[in-house]
Please model this.
Amino acid sequence: MFEIHNYIGFITAILLFQLVPGPGTVAILNATARSGRRGGMGAVLGTLAGDLVYMVAAVSGLAALLTASPVLFSVVRLAGIAYLCRFGWTLLRSTTTSNVQETCSVPSVRRSFHQAFVVGLTNPKVIVFFMSFFPLFMTSTTRPVTLVIMMVHVSALCLVYQTLLVLVGDQVAKRLSPMPQVRLHATRLAGAALIVFGIKLALESD
Model:
């Protein structure tokens, strides 16, 4: 279908990829908890924009440049790791319920988008992932337009899944709103998770 080799396998792989929690998931849930559905959807769009940058980079061959230049790859990766840990530390340093209410006051949708977008760019190895992922579902006769169709599929399925994540996260956040201590610990947990992701990326070999 759509000239995508093993179409069912392609869709399944995208869904399984989404089910594995990562920094983007944490950013979306955190934005939803802080500013409701609007902030959550801003984070979703930021995450999708980050993925789109990597997909376009992979398809256009920019991944080859990064893999051919270890120094450039390391600089991009370390810059992303630094931002990821800094974002996590901002959440982790919340020490009181008043602090978490101040820190988690409703941010603009633009800010939620920006934070999720940058978090989405924290791992340049995603370029390599997409570069190796797409060929699995291509043949020697695959046309360039099929790559565009594949990118649309990835973005559409991610949008549906992440929107559901926002809706569920918003309901959970509303139930926890009368319990500031729980919100405080949830904020700290999100911060710690982002730092752990950053450390994991730093320890991974190039």
